[in-house]
Amino acid sequence: MKKIIIGMLVLLMLFTVVGAAAAQSGKYALVVKSAGNPFMEKVREGFENAISEVGGEAIYKAPAEPTVEAQIIMIEQLITQRVDAIAISANDPEALRPALQKAMSRGIKVLSLDSSVNPNSRMVHVNQADPEQIGRVQIQGIAEMIGGEGQIAVLSATSQATNQNLWIDWMKKELEKPEYDNIELVKVAYGDDLRDKSVSETEALLKSYPDLKGIIAPTTVGIAAAGKVLTDRDLVGEVYLTGLGLPSEMAEYIKNGVSPWMYLWNPIDLGYLAGYAAEGLVAEEITGEAGESFTAGDLGEKEVIKAGEGTEIMLGAPFRFDADNIDQWKEVY
Amino acid sequence: MAEKSSENRMSLERIQQIREFSLIGFIIILSIFVQFRNSNFLTMANLDDLLTNTAILSILAVGMMMVIITRGIDLSIGATLALSGMLTSMLVSVYPALHPLAALLIGTLIGFVSGSIIGLLVAKFNILPIIATLGMMNVFRGITFLISGGKWVSAYQMSDSFKSISTGSILGINNLIVISIFIYLVFYYFINYTRTGRKIYAVGSSPKSAKVSGINVTKITWLVYSIMGSLAGLSGVLWVSKFASAQSNTASGYELNVIAACVIGGISIAGGEGKVTGLLSGVLLYGILENALPMINVSPFWQNAIQGAVILIAVVVSALIKRKTGSSNKIRRED
Amino acid sequence: MSDQYILELKNITKKFPGVKALDNVNFQLKAGEIHALMGENGAGKSTFIKVITGVHQPNEGEIYLNGEKIEINDPNDSKALGIAAIYQHATSYPHLSVTENIFMGHEKIDSRTKRIMWGDMHQAAAKHLQELGADFDPRRRMSTLSVAQQQIVEIAKAISTKAEIIIMDEPTASLTKTESEDLYIITEKLQKIGTSIIFISHRFEDMYRLADRVTVLRDSKYIGTWGVNEVSNKDLIKAMVGREINQLFPKTEKEIGKEIMRVENLSRKGYFKDISFALNEGEILAVTGLVGAGRTELCESLFGIKEYDSGIIYFENKEVEIKEVEDAMNLGIGYLPEDRQEQGLILDWELDKNISLSALDKISNRGWIDRKKEKNMAKRLAEKVNVKARSIFNLASQLSGGNQQKIVVAKLLTSDLKVIILDEPTKGVDVGAKSAIFEIMSDLAAQGYAIIMVSSEMPEVLGMGDRILVMRNGEITAEMDVEEADQEKILEAAMKAEK
Amino acid sequence: MENKLEKGLTFNRKIKAEKEFNLKDFFLQWEWLLLLIFIAIHIMNSQLSPYYLNTYTLLDATMTFLDKAFIALSMTFVIIFGDIDISVGSTVALSSVIMAVLYNAGLSMPLAIIVCLLVGITAGFINGILIVKFKELSAVIVTLSTMILYRGIAYIILEDQAAGGFPMWFNFLGWGYIKNLIPVILIAFSVAAVIFYLLLHKTTFGRKIYAIGNNDIASLFSGVKVDKIKLIVFTLNGFMAALAALFLTSKMGSTRPNIASGYELDVIAMVVLGGVSTSGGKGRMIGVLLSIFIIGYLRYGLGLVNVPSQVILIIIGALLIISVLVSNLLYGNKSE
User: Fold this and answer.
1) Domain match, A224 and A308 both
2) Is residue C84 helix, strand or coil?
């Protein structure tokens, strides 16, 4: 039996080892964290728009579960397909290094967006917003809501993706300013980006800190869950909520006053920018060195800047959603 | 000797009680300990939260108990739950006027269809439950992804009446708790006081005997998975209403929590054994662990290990109690 | 004419893929009689019952109940017609209560609400049990009952369905003498209230004690029906086996040699204590007593299945320890377990693999199996024990009970044995195979092997044993030479001080 | 050779010891069906993607699924027992995390690798000892508990951090090629597969595994050390999980407590599709090997033409059920 199989395999290989290597140009792949994430669906939309503007073919890959293992396999498949560029939102900054380096060694341009990979495994990172700005603006927001004093807590995701931890660090730095002396950050809780976990973590926060005045949830799942809990308990005006959320999910809580406003960047633009950056790399308009610049379609001129040990392209400041503009945005994403 | 050991084994009925009592004892000790560390634990508000958050788990556990009694297992319930939740909430987003009861009914129906397919595979085509449900888990989850197109159904797309299913209350008690109490009463009656209910035990205790004594084993097995599916479907609606969000990866892996609760509750994987009262204490312990650990500031990273250890201890201790009370530990198999 | 029969089966044929399990079988049951059904294993008795109870449907033939032609399509049909069966392996629900076992499927329910009325059921169950002379609590779990008690529950179940015809499939096979006696009384009681009974058994004493008429099946065919008093034992055996058997207990002349094994104060908590005996070459030591007296457990400890707690074993005058099966096998102790299918064989395996399983060392080289050696060994041994099989690649499950037994014996022959332990070697075995087994035993003893034979069958103990040990409640209550032994003495020792 | 016990017995019946070749039985073997599926998948894949059918792709693709395939080898033994081990995914995570943490704490890499394997062995041993000592607990329950427990310990150790920074040579396991063509993992797996094949089909150890899976009581009575063998097999399963952890960790370059989640189900699916019955005693290594490559290449091929992962999910699920269904219809079902 074994012989037969080996024989078959060899035969199959011989059969078409000559197999065509039809080279097509202009294949751009987008690998996201997992399927079923509406934020990423919007990123995809922007990415596909950009790619169709430059006349290429966009490939979208989303693993069923948000794991690095699945992303590695997808990268290998993309390498086999000989795509020209891979844009990835990573489930782990470090673990994709070998796979992405292999891709780069085969001449594929690699960039990350949203959730970055380490500088040595990418050429450039497309950053939705400056982490410093994101961190600081959320503290400023919550301070304004609670009137400058009281206890606040952070409801984060798993914080495995580098983002949240970075933002929380900036939040803590912002809090060191003297004007926030009366604000106390009592706890950073982790909802693991799971609905049920985020709900029970929010409830535990409310119970453990009866005097809690505000919650910052720098994650879309967490903020929606917290909004739901605060609404259900009718804590409008007593506990304020802000953070990063999807307009569609947060529309209800912004309008009922639980969260007077919150922030997010525009995922469509993020995808769009990533699409143009990929095109720039493929066309060798840019190489990912600091100081280069390129035109990103409707977004205009963008510059590659130094960030840590690597380089990145900045989308812009986070956008503020409040009762006045939420209705026009909730249908978009 | 037979006489001697059978006297010993006379107390076998009592073992179940001892087990339940020791479980309840453990729950009480745990509660006192937690209360000591965080005085908010034993407040009405927190107990309400605790029960509300455990309600869905408890409903699923009833179905899983029946499946396990027939020597089966159902790994697909998380996927069924997601499918029903997604379909129902998509429906609600299109027809906001849909009556909540209708939504519950539709969700249950979707679950029933899913469950009866599994029932058919297991009962009619003799596919082992673990395989059939593993396969269908993939299929249901995939279908959910496809139907939703990867999109979520969010709070604003759901009507208030739909969301009120799980936020509203009757006589000051949260609807979810009311629904799960209702389900426990119905199934307590069903399992203990109807012929069909008893046949479930018969099939699990000895499928061979059941067959020769004219019990339609195929039908009962099918029924059990269909009920499990229906309850998962119902839970899907409750889940989506509770979290006001339907995602395609909802409740992924939740089946293991449900099985764990059943195991703590003394439902024997070998079949034929298990009581609603035991199940209830298992579910309660599980719910308390979930609720109390964050409250006493146990690092979230310790929670997994603690849960695993508790389950392991629960099953080992119950095995030891069984031995001590003299049940035969011969290697012979029953059946 | 046929209307005097309550149940009549005409020309019943049942085919399974590849085999005819019943070939044109006829059977008539008179109202109120006890009718024995006999035949060797594999003669078709079990299939025959399953046809009557609707588990199987016949391919050909007709069934008449009270003269009316009927069809029985599933077990519920037969139940509705008043037919109940008590199967060989109790068909009970071990996790459930006695009451539930009795009433499963026909629980007493409130006519309006359909609610099960547990109180009424427990009462009714207690009443049924009382009628049968049993006094245990119907709330008890089935698994806590003894085999005999479980059988009573099965009978109570039959009564509760108001069955007019009760089929008993080898009900005495796992019962002791006294328990069997109790069962006879119950059966007669049933007969008195007008129940017709089909009684299947290997034991002639059952038949003589109870039955009015006897029907014999052989090789799936109907051989004949006789009045019990009209037919001689010898003719009946001939009808069953198809040939004459001259001597059931072939005891050959032999010399009992020197001591090979001695056991002193062997104990295992909860099972047996202070067991001491000696065993000599060429001797057949019969160990008897009631079921549950600790005989099987003793043998299991001697064979290393379950470790004993204290005591000393001497083997060929050397002190040895038997902790594992391997220890026992290395010493040269072989064990023929009681339940061949469960403990002796792997039914889904070919004969060669079955035979070699306990001698893997002999057919392997540093762990690598030598298939050629294995096949040769299997062929040689299968031929030695005269297994009726075409090739060593036949599956064990394809063999008849007697031939399966022979394969278990062949497994023993793979090692160089000195002591052979046989646990109930003839349980569930038909006459033909029985005599073959006794023949082998005698042969072995004559060659100097020491044999420990556990048996509940009095004729067997007296017929084959050289020395007899009687156990009760885990202790040895009597030891006697066969010359000085008789049934009364053994029984007295087995039941000493009980009741 | 004839021992003295046999001498007394002589009959004259002849029994055949030569196997009769039955063409129908031969071709009705499950493995043929698998082979058919295997070929069909390659034909389908090469129709779908122009990049599929060439030596590089076919060899490269094996890098995407062979890590868990190591566990499938030993899981085959476990399932032949009629048991199951669902803690393997957690064992992978635990051994990988401990290895990384110790390496970062200054242990040399070779030592860390040895520790990784030891952790796997220990985890498997604990499963085994619990299953052997508490016969009333089924393996499902024991390994369900340890599944939660082992991953829990991994979380305690590393919380939500990642650990990595392994030396460059460690990358070689997951990413290296021999002669720039054949992936290291494929060679390692082939060696392991041959060893497991021989172990199961040619040695007394394998024979005993089948015996226990068919009838543990009869095995015990035949002198098979049931407990010892079970313990060895569960320990071996832990060891193979640790081996898979090495390759997976090498592939990712770093590790964290949530890796390899859901591996147990993938592995079980591979084994079951290979024709190993979860009721025990049945199945062959060759079927499992075929099934590993069927599932692996199916996934890879569909991914190559960018079929959404959720559709792949459905296809794998359906394949599992349909193949078991077909086998039930073809060979009847034992459970009756």
Assistant:
1) no
2) strand
- Chain C closest CA to D60's CA: distance in Å? 35
Query: How many Cβ pairs closer than 8 A exist between chain C and D?
Result: 126
The answer to whether residue A321 sits within a structural domain is no
Mean pLDDT of chain D: 88
> What is the rounded CA–CA span in Å between residue C12 and residue C410?
37
A246 or D231, higher pLDDT: D231
CB B117 within 8 A of CB B219: no
Helix (H) / strand (E) containing C164: none
- Looking at the structure of chain B, the number of domains it has is 1
Tell whether B1 is covered by a domain.
Answer: no
> Is chain A in touch with chain C: ≥3 Cβ pairs within 8 A?
no
| Residue range(s) defining the domain that contains residue A109 | 25-128+267-316
Residues A205 and A87 placed together within one structural domain of the fold: no
Among A230, A246, A264, the domain boundary falls at: A264
Same domain as A240, residue A150: yes
Residue A79 lies in a domain: yes
Query: Rounded to 10 degrees, what is the CA torsion of A154, A157, A162, A165?
Result: 10
Token output for B53: 């958050």
The domains located in chain C, with CATH, are 2-241 (3.40.50.300), 259-495 (3.40.50.300)
**What's residue D246's pLDDT?**
96
Residues of chain A contacting residue B242, judged by C-beta atoms under 8 Å apart: 199
Please indicate, yes or no, whether residues A109 and A155 belong to a single structural domain of this protein.
no
* Residue A158 shares a structural domain with residue A283: no
**Total domain count for chain A?**
2
Test mutation, D43, D51, D103, chain A, max A CBs within 10 A: D51
Residues forming a β-bridge with C213: C35, C227
Please, are residues D247 and D66 in contact by the beta-carbon 8 Å criterion? yes
Q: What is the pLDDT of residues C87-139, one digit of tens each?
A: 766 678 888 889 998 888 888 888 888 888 899 999 999 998 888 888 888 88
Tell whether C267 is within 8 A of chain B (Cβ).
no
- Would you say residue A3 lies in a domain? no
Give the best-scoring range by mean pLDDT among C172-181, C423-432, D36-45.
Answer: D36-45
The beta-carbon neighbor of C292 closest among B1, B211, B332 is: B1
Cβ separation D313–B138 shorter than 8 A: yes
Portion 185-214 of D in contact with C at CB < 8 A = 202-205, 207-208, 210-211, 214
Domain interval for residue B246 = 12-324
Answer whether D20 touches C (CB < 8 Å).
yes
Question: What CATH number is given to the structural domain containing B319?
Answer: 1.10.3470
Asked whether residue A143 falls in the same domain as residue A218, the answer is: yes
C395 three-class SS: strand
Question: CA distances (Å), B182 to each of B61, B68, B186, D18, in order?
Answer: 14, 22, 6, 67
Place of tokens 């199959």: A12
Segment D70-82, tens digit of pLDDT: 999 999 999 999 8
Secondary-structure breakdown of chain D: helix, strand, coil percentages, each rounded to the nearest 5: 70, 5, 25
Question: Does B91 or C386 have the greater pLDDT score?
Answer: B91
**Which residue in this structure is represented by tokens 């057949």?**
C284
Does any domain span residue B135? yes
Contacts with B209 from chain C: Cβ below 8 Å = 91-93
Angle of the D88-104 helix axis to the D109-133 helix axis, nearest 10: 150
A191: domain CATH number is 3.40.50.2300
pTM for this model (two decimals): 0.83
Measured between beta carbons, the chain B residues lying within 8 angstroms of D134 are: 315-316, 319
Q: Average of pLDDT values for B287-295?
A: 83
Pick from C325, C382, C385: which is nearest to D220 by CB?
C325
* Chain B nearest-CA residue for C108: B195
Q: Domains in chain D and their CATH numbers?
A: 63-326 (1.10.3470)
What whole-number distance in Å separates Cα of residue A195 and Cα of residue D49? 39
D317 exposed, middle or buried (CB, 10 Å; 0-12, 13-18, 19+)?
A: buried
